[in-house]
Amino acid sequence: MKSRWHQYRNSIGWLYILLLLNIITSCTQKKTPKMYIVEIKQMQFQPADLTVQDGDTVAWINHDMVPHDITEEKSKSWTSGPLLPNKSWSMPVTKSADYYCSIHVVMKGRITVQ
Amino acid sequence: MKIKFFANWAAHTIIGAAILSMPAFAQQSPQLSDAEIASVAVTANQIDINNANIAKQKTRNEEVLKFAQTMATDHKAVIDQAVALVTKLGVTPKDNAISKKLLADAAQTEKALHSKNGDAFNKAYIDNEVTYHQAVINVVENVLIPQAQNKQLKELLQSVAPVLHSHLEHAQMIQKQIVK
Ligand SMILES: [Cu+2]
Asked: Of the candidates B16, B62, B63, B7, which has an alpha carbon nearest to the alpha carbon of residue B175?
């Protein structure tokens, strides 16, 4: 009788802890910046259009055999510099931007900060 | 002067027509071995590096210069990959009708490019880059990829195609700017 009560109380306790953990992780998830990956392959940014939250980080990985770069298009306010094959470059994003590859000017992408 | 210009123009048109007719020419030719395909790939890339080197010396247009630098870098990267692969596979590139034709046409183009300066040079270089990339895309997609036997060689050629397409679009963009 006593052990059954114990079992019951224990399972309620565990449920409570799980619920609490769930709340904590979902809260921290909202605050922790996320990491997004843009793959460069077949001479394209994939995805070419990406929506992020203010402060999230975007990383670009070059899977092509040629060097690329990631350059803000309008005023060239930021650039990765040449990104060699199999290398990556990342940047925390605070502002929406149209970007392109200044080496292959027909390659274009966009980040939208929500 | 007028005669020389016409001769250049005629030579250019004939070269262009000859290169563009290559897929038909190549389709009639016998099956290429992987060694021959490797030779065509290396030759085609080396020709565009040579043209880029002429442009780097002669042009004063910043867009054209940057384009030429991209051509030199990218086509060198493709050659490096191709050489690494054939070395790994133990294949020795073997010249053939297509690689010989590419080289013969390239000699004519080089001559035409050397004879021009200023805006006329920029136009001739970019016009040729458009025509040349169209021709090479044709050969790669319609001859080299379908005929390649080795899976890695086929995959390498498949990954080169998007590079060539981006070069073509880039050249066409500059071509429009130059006309303005
Ligand atoms: Cu690029």
From this structure: B63
Interchain pair A104, B170: CB under 8 A:
yes
Edge-to-edge order in the sheet of strand A97-100 = A49-52, A108-113, A97-100, A71-72
Considering Cα of B56, then B79, then A44, then A46, what sign does the dihedral take? negative
Structure tokens at B165: 């397409």
Closest CA to B71 of B174, B171, B146: B171
Q: Please check whether residue B22 is in contact with residue B132, taking contact to mean a CB–CB distance below 8 angstroms.
A: no
pLDDT, position B1: 39
ipTM for the assembly: 0.81
| Neighbouring C-beta atoms of residue B136, cutoff 10 Å | 25
Across A93-111, b (16+ Cβ under 10 Å) vs e yields: beeebebbbbbbbbbebbb
The pTM of the full predicted model, rounded to 2 decimals, is: 0.80
> A65 and B81 in contact (C-beta within 8 Å)?
yes
Contact residues, chain B, for A63 at CB < 8 Å: none
With a cut of 70, list the residues of chain A below it in pLDDT: 1-31
For residue B74, what is the nearest residue in chain A, using CA coordinates? Answer: A66
The tally of domains found in chain A comes to 2
pLDDT of residue B2: 41
CB B48 within 8 A of CB B130: no
Whether residues A65 and B77 touch (CB distance < 8 A) is answered with: yes
State whether the Cα torsion B85-B89-B92-B96 is positive or negative.
negative
Tokens of B92: 């020795």
Q: Which CATH number fits domain B32-179: 3.30.230.10, 3.40.50.300, 1.20.1260.10, 1.10.1200.10?
A: 1.20.1260.10
